[in-house]
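Notes from hallway chat w/ T.B., transcribed later so I don't forget. T.B. wanted the structure written out for a chain they're using in a teaching module, and asked if we could keep both sequence and structure tokens in one place. Agreed to drop them here.
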Amino acid sequence: MKRFMVMMALLLGYAFTAAAGSYNYVEQAQFKQWLEKGKDMAIVDIQVPAEFQQHHFKAALETGAFPVKSAADKQKLDAVVPKLAAAKNDVVVVCPRGGGGAKNTYDYLKSKGIDEKRIFILKEGMQGWPHKELAVAGK
């Protein structure tokens, strides 16, 4: 009986993990290296416009799509999907904290045909970014 319970717990844990989905993250140190080396990538920034104006990465695609829940939010992402699909380079999603909005963006881009092997979420988002010298500051 104990063995059965352990097996059930493992199966439930696996099912929950699979249902929750998994995402590709890029650690801040790795992303810093990518920026410094000029890695060919698309940076999709979903911060609201006021936050984008305060701090963003050079060449980031401003979408203002946060939190990517409504049809209007998703429509803002639709503007960059053709560019992402044509480029075939890695895509880094930047949101305020690297949480729900970034996951929503990841899922949406994936549903639009962007290969999830190319999509990364910047861990801890823009608010957690420790290398301010590599970000464009607001006016």
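Follow-up for T.B.: Residues 22-137 form a domain with the Oxidized Rhodanese; domain 1 fold (CATH 3.40.250.10). Might be a good example for the class.
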